Amino acid sequence: MAQPIITSLLDTDLYKFTMWQAMLHRHPQVQAEYRFVCRKKPELPLSSLVEAVDRELDHLCQLRFSEPELQFLGKLRFIKSDFVDFLRIFQFQRRFIQTSVEGDELHINAVGPQVHVMAFEIFVLAIVNELYFRQFDSRAALAEGQRRLEGKVEELKTLGKEAALRHPFELFDFGVRRRFSGPWQKHVVKTFVEETPQWFKGTSNVLLAKDLDIVPIGTMAHEYFQTYQALGVVQLRNFQKAALESWVQEYRGDLGIALTDTVGMDAFLRDFDLYFAKLFDGLRHDSGDPIAWGEKALAHYARLRIDAHTKRMVFSDGLDIREALRIYHHFADRTQCGFGIGTQLTNDMGLEPLSIVMKLTSANGQPVAKLSDSPGKLLCDDQTFLDYLRKVFDVRP
Protein backbone atom coordinates (compact mmCIF):
# COMPACT_ATOMS: atom_id res chain seq x y z
CA MET A 1 0.00 0.00 0.00
CA ALA A 2 1.22 3.52 -0.85
CA GLN A 3 2.02 6.04 1.86
CA PRO A 4 -1.27 7.31 3.34
CA ILE A 5 -2.25 10.73 2.06
CA ILE A 6 -2.92 12.19 5.51
CA THR A 7 -0.25 11.46 8.10
CA SER A 8 -0.85 14.37 10.49
CA LEU A 9 -4.05 15.92 11.83
CA LEU A 10 -2.38 19.33 11.45
CA ASP A 11 -2.47 18.88 7.67
CA THR A 12 -5.59 21.02 7.33
CA ASP A 13 -6.74 24.65 7.24
CA LEU A 14 -6.31 26.83 10.31
CA TYR A 15 -9.92 27.99 10.19
CA LYS A 16 -11.07 24.45 10.94
CA PHE A 17 -9.37 24.80 14.33
CA THR A 18 -10.64 28.32 15.02
CA MET A 19 -14.25 27.39 14.19
CA TRP A 20 -13.86 24.09 16.04
CA GLN A 21 -12.79 25.85 19.22
CA ALA A 22 -15.64 28.36 18.99
CA MET A 23 -18.24 25.63 18.53
CA LEU A 24 -16.77 23.46 21.28
CA HIS A 25 -16.98 26.35 23.73
CA ARG A 26 -20.38 27.69 22.72
CA HIS A 27 -22.47 24.98 21.04
CA PRO A 28 -20.90 21.58 21.68
CA GLN A 29 -24.26 19.81 21.51
CA VAL A 30 -24.99 20.59 17.83
CA GLN A 31 -25.65 17.62 15.55
CA ALA A 32 -24.57 18.23 11.96
CA GLU A 33 -24.43 16.71 8.49
CA TYR A 34 -21.75 17.48 5.89
CA ARG A 35 -22.07 16.35 2.29
CA PHE A 36 -19.42 15.93 -0.40
CA VAL A 37 -20.37 17.46 -3.77
CA CYS A 38 -18.61 17.49 -7.13
CA ARG A 39 -19.91 20.63 -8.87
CA LYS A 40 -18.59 19.79 -12.34
CA LYS A 41 -18.33 16.41 -14.06
CA PRO A 42 -14.69 15.30 -13.94
CA GLU A 43 -12.71 13.72 -16.76
CA LEU A 44 -12.57 10.40 -14.89
CA PRO A 45 -15.42 9.07 -12.68
CA LEU A 46 -14.93 9.63 -8.97
CA SER A 47 -16.92 6.48 -8.18
CA SER A 48 -13.85 4.40 -9.09
CA LEU A 49 -12.05 5.89 -6.07
CA VAL A 50 -14.46 4.66 -3.41
CA GLU A 51 -12.38 1.71 -2.14
CA ALA A 52 -9.23 3.83 -1.93
CA VAL A 53 -11.15 6.62 -0.20
CA ASP A 54 -12.43 4.12 2.37
CA ARG A 55 -8.89 2.92 3.06
CA GLU A 56 -7.70 6.49 3.52
CA LEU A 57 -10.59 7.26 5.88
CA ASP A 58 -9.81 4.12 7.88
CA HIS A 59 -6.28 5.41 8.30
CA LEU A 60 -7.42 8.96 9.10
CA CYS A 61 -9.57 7.63 11.92
CA GLN A 62 -6.54 6.03 13.53
CA LEU A 63 -4.55 9.27 13.80
CA ARG A 64 -4.07 11.31 16.97
CA PHE A 65 -2.41 14.65 17.61
CA SER A 66 1.19 14.33 18.75
CA GLU A 67 2.58 16.35 21.63
CA PRO A 68 4.79 18.53 19.35
CA GLU A 69 1.69 19.29 17.26
CA LEU A 70 -0.31 20.21 20.34
CA GLN A 71 2.53 22.38 21.59
CA PHE A 72 2.55 24.26 18.27
CA LEU A 73 -1.20 24.88 18.48
CA GLY A 74 -0.93 25.89 22.12
CA LYS A 75 1.58 28.61 21.26
CA LEU A 76 -0.98 30.37 19.05
CA ARG A 77 -2.33 33.00 21.41
CA PHE A 78 -5.95 32.56 20.29
CA ILE A 79 -5.98 28.79 20.98
CA LYS A 80 -7.20 28.04 24.51
CA SER A 81 -5.63 25.43 26.76
CA ASP A 82 -8.88 23.50 27.24
CA PHE A 83 -9.22 23.15 23.46
CA VAL A 84 -5.71 21.71 23.32
CA ASP A 85 -6.73 19.28 26.06
CA PHE A 86 -9.75 18.26 23.98
CA LEU A 87 -7.54 17.69 20.93
CA ARG A 88 -5.18 15.58 23.05
CA ILE A 89 -7.91 12.96 23.41
CA PHE A 90 -9.64 13.57 20.06
CA GLN A 91 -9.88 10.85 17.42
CA PHE A 92 -12.12 10.72 14.34
CA GLN A 93 -14.87 8.10 14.61
CA ARG A 94 -15.25 6.01 11.46
CA ARG A 95 -18.95 5.42 12.13
CA PHE A 96 -19.62 9.13 11.58
CA ILE A 97 -18.54 9.12 7.91
CA GLN A 98 -19.82 6.91 5.10
CA THR A 99 -19.11 6.56 1.39
CA SER A 100 -21.28 5.23 -1.44
CA VAL A 101 -21.55 5.40 -5.21
CA GLU A 102 -24.38 6.19 -7.59
CA GLY A 103 -23.44 5.64 -11.20
CA ASP A 104 -20.24 7.62 -11.75
CA GLU A 105 -20.82 9.77 -8.67
CA LEU A 106 -19.02 9.42 -5.35
CA HIS A 107 -21.03 10.24 -2.24
CA ILE A 108 -19.45 11.00 1.13
CA ASN A 109 -21.56 12.01 4.13
CA ALA A 110 -20.38 12.87 7.63
CA VAL A 111 -23.15 12.86 10.24
CA GLY A 112 -22.81 13.25 14.01
CA PRO A 113 -21.87 15.74 16.71
CA GLN A 114 -20.50 18.79 14.92
CA VAL A 115 -17.39 18.92 17.09
CA HIS A 116 -16.62 15.37 15.92
CA VAL A 117 -17.44 15.68 12.21
CA MET A 118 -16.67 19.27 11.18
CA ALA A 119 -12.94 18.58 10.80
CA PHE A 120 -13.47 15.81 8.22
CA GLU A 121 -14.01 18.35 5.40
CA ILE A 122 -10.50 19.36 4.38
CA PHE A 123 -9.08 15.87 4.82
CA VAL A 124 -11.78 14.37 2.60
CA LEU A 125 -11.19 16.93 -0.15
CA ALA A 126 -7.40 16.48 -0.02
CA ILE A 127 -7.81 12.69 -0.13
CA VAL A 128 -10.18 12.69 -3.11
CA ASN A 129 -8.00 15.16 -5.01
CA GLU A 130 -4.77 13.26 -4.54
CA LEU A 131 -6.32 9.89 -5.37
CA TYR A 132 -7.90 11.35 -8.48
CA PHE A 133 -4.70 12.90 -9.83
CA ARG A 134 -2.69 9.75 -9.19
CA GLN A 135 -4.54 8.34 -12.21
CA PHE A 136 -2.71 10.73 -14.55
CA ASP A 137 0.92 10.89 -15.69
CA SER A 138 2.53 12.36 -12.57
CA ARG A 139 5.91 12.95 -14.20
CA ALA A 140 4.40 15.12 -16.93
CA ALA A 141 2.15 16.92 -14.46
CA LEU A 142 5.00 17.73 -12.09
CA ALA A 143 7.18 19.00 -14.93
CA GLU A 144 4.39 21.29 -16.15
CA GLY A 145 3.61 22.35 -12.59
CA GLN A 146 7.24 23.31 -12.01
CA ARG A 147 7.32 25.34 -15.22
CA ARG A 148 4.18 27.21 -14.19
CA LEU A 149 5.43 27.69 -10.63
CA GLU A 150 8.59 29.35 -11.91
CA GLY A 151 6.43 31.61 -14.06
CA LYS A 152 4.36 32.64 -11.04
CA VAL A 153 7.48 33.53 -9.08
CA GLU A 154 8.73 35.69 -11.93
CA GLU A 155 5.30 37.28 -12.33
CA LEU A 156 5.30 38.20 -8.68
CA LYS A 157 8.82 39.60 -8.86
CA THR A 158 7.61 42.21 -11.35
CA LEU A 159 6.12 43.96 -8.33
CA GLY A 160 9.63 44.92 -7.28
CA LYS A 161 10.10 46.87 -10.50
CA GLU A 162 6.93 48.95 -10.12
CA ALA A 163 6.26 52.13 -8.21
CA ALA A 164 5.18 51.27 -4.67
CA LEU A 165 1.56 51.67 -3.70
CA ARG A 166 0.55 52.79 -0.22
CA HIS A 167 -0.05 49.27 1.09
CA PRO A 168 2.09 46.21 0.29
CA PHE A 169 1.01 43.14 -1.64
CA GLU A 170 0.53 40.14 0.65
CA LEU A 171 0.03 36.61 -0.63
CA PHE A 172 -1.16 33.51 1.27
CA ASP A 173 -1.43 29.86 0.29
CA PHE A 174 -5.02 28.61 0.66
CA GLY A 175 -4.49 25.41 -1.34
CA VAL A 176 -4.92 22.41 0.98
CA ARG A 177 -8.31 21.24 -0.20
CA ARG A 178 -7.65 21.09 -3.94
CA ARG A 179 -3.92 20.40 -4.04
CA PHE A 180 -2.32 18.02 -6.52
CA SER A 181 -0.63 16.27 -3.58
CA GLY A 182 0.70 16.99 -0.11
CA PRO A 183 4.37 16.93 -1.19
CA TRP A 184 3.62 19.27 -4.10
CA GLN A 185 1.90 21.79 -1.83
CA LYS A 186 4.93 21.77 0.45
CA HIS A 187 7.24 22.33 -2.53
CA VAL A 188 5.12 25.25 -3.77
CA VAL A 189 4.95 26.94 -0.37
CA LYS A 190 8.65 26.40 0.28
CA THR A 191 9.46 27.94 -3.11
CA PHE A 192 7.49 31.09 -2.36
CA VAL A 193 8.96 31.34 1.13
CA GLU A 194 12.48 31.20 -0.31
CA GLU A 195 11.98 33.18 -3.53
CA THR A 196 9.46 35.89 -2.61
CA PRO A 197 9.50 36.38 1.19
CA GLN A 198 8.65 40.07 0.87
CA TRP A 199 5.22 39.17 -0.54
CA PHE A 200 4.48 35.62 0.61
CA LYS A 201 3.20 35.90 4.18
CA GLY A 202 1.75 32.56 5.22
CA THR A 203 -0.33 29.47 4.58
CA SER A 204 -3.67 28.12 5.75
CA ASN A 205 -2.01 24.70 6.15
CA VAL A 206 -1.16 24.39 9.84
CA LEU A 207 1.31 21.55 9.33
CA LEU A 208 3.28 23.50 6.73
CA ALA A 209 3.23 26.58 8.95
CA LYS A 210 4.75 24.47 11.71
CA ASP A 211 7.32 22.72 9.51
CA LEU A 212 8.41 25.82 7.58
CA ASP A 213 8.18 28.26 10.49
CA ILE A 214 5.73 30.61 8.79
CA VAL A 215 2.43 32.17 9.85
CA PRO A 216 -0.76 30.03 9.78
CA ILE A 217 -3.59 32.02 8.20
CA GLY A 218 -7.37 31.75 8.62
CA THR A 219 -10.43 32.77 10.62
CA MET A 220 -13.90 31.51 9.65
CA ALA A 221 -15.81 29.77 6.85
CA HIS A 222 -19.45 29.60 5.79
CA GLU A 223 -20.26 26.63 8.02
CA TYR A 224 -19.75 28.80 11.09
CA PHE A 225 -22.44 31.28 10.00
CA GLN A 226 -24.69 28.55 8.61
CA THR A 227 -24.77 26.74 11.94
CA TYR A 228 -26.31 29.83 13.52
CA GLN A 229 -29.21 29.62 11.03
CA ALA A 230 -30.36 26.45 12.79
CA LEU A 231 -29.49 26.95 16.46
CA GLY A 232 -32.77 28.60 17.40
CA VAL A 233 -31.02 30.95 19.83
CA VAL A 234 -32.07 33.99 17.75
CA GLN A 235 -34.51 34.73 14.95
CA LEU A 236 -33.20 33.78 11.52
CA ARG A 237 -33.00 37.46 10.63
CA ASN A 238 -30.35 37.94 13.31
CA PHE A 239 -28.19 34.85 12.73
CA GLN A 240 -25.28 36.81 11.22
CA LYS A 241 -25.19 39.23 14.15
CA ALA A 242 -25.30 36.33 16.59
CA ALA A 243 -22.43 34.56 14.82
CA LEU A 244 -20.31 37.72 14.69
CA GLU A 245 -20.99 38.51 18.35
CA SER A 246 -20.04 34.97 19.43
CA TRP A 247 -16.81 35.28 17.45
CA VAL A 248 -15.97 38.58 19.13
CA GLN A 249 -16.60 37.09 22.56
CA GLU A 250 -14.52 33.99 21.77
CA TYR A 251 -11.48 35.73 20.30
CA ARG A 252 -11.67 39.24 21.79
CA GLY A 253 -9.69 41.03 19.10
CA ASP A 254 -7.86 38.14 17.46
CA LEU A 255 -8.82 36.59 14.10
CA GLY A 256 -10.64 39.71 12.98
CA ILE A 257 -11.39 39.00 9.31
CA ALA A 258 -15.11 38.39 8.74
CA LEU A 259 -16.50 36.35 5.83
CA THR A 260 -19.24 38.26 4.01
CA ASP A 261 -21.13 36.05 1.58
CA THR A 262 -23.19 33.48 3.47
CA VAL A 263 -26.30 35.40 2.36
CA GLY A 264 -24.55 37.89 0.08
CA MET A 265 -22.56 41.06 0.58
CA ASP A 266 -25.52 43.46 0.67
CA ALA A 267 -27.30 41.49 3.39
CA PHE A 268 -24.04 41.15 5.31
CA LEU A 269 -23.34 44.87 5.31
CA ARG A 270 -26.82 45.59 6.68
CA ASP A 271 -25.80 43.60 9.75
CA PHE A 272 -22.18 44.78 9.84
CA ASP A 273 -22.89 47.98 11.74
CA LEU A 274 -20.50 50.45 13.39
CA TYR A 275 -19.99 48.12 16.35
CA PHE A 276 -18.80 45.20 14.24
CA ALA A 277 -17.01 47.38 11.69
CA LYS A 278 -14.83 48.80 14.46
CA LEU A 279 -14.25 45.46 16.18
CA PHE A 280 -13.28 43.46 13.09
CA ASP A 281 -10.01 44.13 11.28
CA GLY A 282 -11.51 43.57 7.86
CA LEU A 283 -13.50 41.42 5.47
CA ARG A 284 -12.94 38.37 3.24
CA HIS A 285 -14.25 38.09 -0.32
CA ASP A 286 -15.21 34.61 -1.56
CA SER A 287 -17.80 35.11 -4.29
CA GLY A 288 -19.06 37.61 -6.84
CA ASP A 289 -17.15 40.35 -8.63
CA PRO A 290 -14.15 41.29 -6.43
CA ILE A 291 -13.99 44.91 -7.59
CA ALA A 292 -17.69 45.53 -7.01
CA TRP A 293 -17.43 43.79 -3.62
CA GLY A 294 -14.43 45.88 -2.59
CA GLU A 295 -16.09 49.13 -3.63
CA LYS A 296 -19.12 48.22 -1.50
CA ALA A 297 -16.85 47.53 1.46
CA LEU A 298 -15.02 50.84 1.11
CA ALA A 299 -18.28 52.75 0.70
CA HIS A 300 -19.60 51.08 3.85
CA TYR A 301 -16.53 52.10 5.86
CA ALA A 302 -16.86 55.63 4.47
CA ARG A 303 -20.51 55.86 5.54
CA LEU A 304 -19.48 54.78 9.04
CA ARG A 305 -16.60 57.32 8.97
CA ILE A 306 -14.01 54.59 9.48
CA ASP A 307 -10.58 55.10 7.94
CA ALA A 308 -10.27 52.30 5.38
CA HIS A 309 -6.48 52.42 5.64
CA THR A 310 -6.86 50.82 9.09
CA LYS A 311 -8.84 47.90 7.62
CA ARG A 312 -7.97 44.94 5.42
CA MET A 313 -9.74 43.27 2.51
CA VAL A 314 -8.77 39.63 1.90
CA PHE A 315 -9.59 38.15 -1.50
CA SER A 316 -9.85 34.37 -1.87
CA ASP A 317 -12.22 33.48 -4.71
CA GLY A 318 -10.61 31.48 -7.53
CA LEU A 319 -7.56 33.72 -7.80
CA ASP A 320 -4.34 33.35 -9.71
CA ILE A 321 -1.32 35.65 -9.42
CA ARG A 322 -2.37 37.84 -12.32
CA GLU A 323 -5.90 38.40 -10.99
CA ALA A 324 -4.58 39.08 -7.50
CA LEU A 325 -2.23 41.73 -8.87
CA ARG A 326 -5.07 43.32 -10.85
CA ILE A 327 -7.20 43.61 -7.73
CA TYR A 328 -4.22 44.84 -5.72
CA HIS A 329 -3.52 47.69 -8.14
CA HIS A 330 -7.17 48.74 -7.96
CA PHE A 331 -7.37 48.96 -4.15
CA ALA A 332 -3.93 49.14 -2.55
CA ASP A 333 -3.76 52.92 -2.39
CA ARG A 334 -7.03 52.98 -0.44
CA THR A 335 -6.87 50.03 1.96
CA GLN A 336 -4.77 47.07 3.06
CA CYS A 337 -5.10 43.98 0.85
CA GLY A 338 -4.34 40.29 1.21
CA PHE A 339 -4.73 37.49 -1.32
CA GLY A 340 -5.37 33.83 -0.55
CA ILE A 341 -4.74 31.65 -3.60
CA GLY A 342 -5.70 27.99 -3.61
CA THR A 343 -6.05 25.80 -6.68
CA GLN A 344 -3.93 28.02 -8.92
CA LEU A 345 -1.01 27.68 -6.52
CA THR A 346 -1.19 24.04 -5.50
CA ASN A 347 -2.86 22.35 -8.49
CA ASP A 348 -1.86 24.26 -11.60
CA MET A 349 -0.37 21.27 -13.42
CA GLY A 350 -1.92 21.42 -16.88
CA LEU A 351 -4.73 19.12 -15.76
CA GLU A 352 -8.35 20.12 -15.23
CA PRO A 353 -8.83 20.69 -11.46
CA LEU A 354 -11.72 19.07 -9.65
CA SER A 355 -14.53 21.33 -8.49
CA ILE A 356 -15.35 19.62 -5.20
CA VAL A 357 -16.64 20.82 -1.85
CA MET A 358 -17.85 19.26 1.38
CA LYS A 359 -20.43 21.54 2.94
CA LEU A 360 -22.67 21.70 5.97
CA THR A 361 -26.22 20.83 4.87
CA SER A 362 -28.07 20.66 8.19
CA ALA A 363 -27.63 21.39 11.88
CA ASN A 364 -29.82 19.95 14.62
CA GLY A 365 -32.01 18.43 11.93
CA GLN A 366 -32.74 21.81 10.34
CA PRO A 367 -31.62 22.80 6.83
CA VAL A 368 -28.97 25.48 6.35
CA ALA A 369 -27.98 27.35 3.21
CA LYS A 370 -25.35 29.53 1.61
CA LEU A 371 -26.80 32.02 -0.85
CA SER A 372 -23.43 33.48 -1.92
CA ASP A 373 -22.81 36.21 -4.48
CA SER A 374 -22.02 33.56 -7.12
CA PRO A 375 -25.06 31.44 -8.16
CA GLY A 376 -22.88 28.37 -8.83
CA LYS A 377 -21.86 28.29 -5.17
CA LEU A 378 -25.40 27.98 -3.82
CA LEU A 379 -25.87 24.84 -1.74
CA CYS A 380 -29.10 23.84 -0.01
CA ASP A 381 -31.20 20.66 0.04
CA ASP A 382 -34.44 22.36 1.10
CA GLN A 383 -36.08 24.70 -1.41
CA THR A 384 -38.67 25.89 1.12
CA PHE A 385 -35.95 27.01 3.55
CA LEU A 386 -33.97 28.56 0.70
CA ASP A 387 -36.98 30.61 -0.40
CA TYR A 388 -37.63 31.72 3.18
CA LEU A 389 -34.00 32.73 3.70
CA ARG A 390 -34.09 34.80 0.52
CA LYS A 391 -37.29 36.50 1.66
CA VAL A 392 -35.94 37.29 5.14
CA PHE A 393 -32.75 38.85 3.75
CA ASP A 394 -34.32 40.33 0.60
CA VAL A 395 -32.07 38.36 -1.74
CA ARG A 396 -33.36 37.74 -5.26
CA PRO A 397 -32.88 34.31 -6.90
Key words describing this protein structure:
globular; nicotinate phosphoribosyltransferase; single chain; 2 domains; 17 helices; six-stranded parallel sheet; five-stranded antiparallel sheet; alpha/beta; 397 residues
Written description of the protein model:
Pfam families: NAPRTase, NAPRTase_N. One of its GO terms (biological process) is NAD+ biosynthetic process via the salvage pathway. Catalyzes the synthesis of beta-nicotinate D-ribonucleotide from nicotinate and 5-phospho-D-ribose 1-phosphate at the expense of ATP. One of its GO terms (molecular function) is glycosyltransferase activity. Strand 7 (282-285), helix 14 and strand 8 (312-315) form a beta-alpha-beta unit. By secondary structure, the chain is of the alpha/beta class. It has 2 domains: 14-135 and 356-393, nicotinate phosphoribosyltransferase, CATH 3.20.140.10; 142-346, Alpha-Beta Barrel (nicotinate phosphoribosyltransferase), CATH 3.20.140.10. The protein has a 6-stranded parallel beta sheet. Strands 2-3-1-10-11 form a 5-stranded antiparallel beta sheet. It starts with 13 loop residues before the first helix and ends with a helix. The protein is 44% helix and 14% strand. The model has no long low-confidence stretch (mean pLDDT 96). Helix 3 packs antiparallel against helix 4 (81-89). It contains 17 helices and 11 strands.
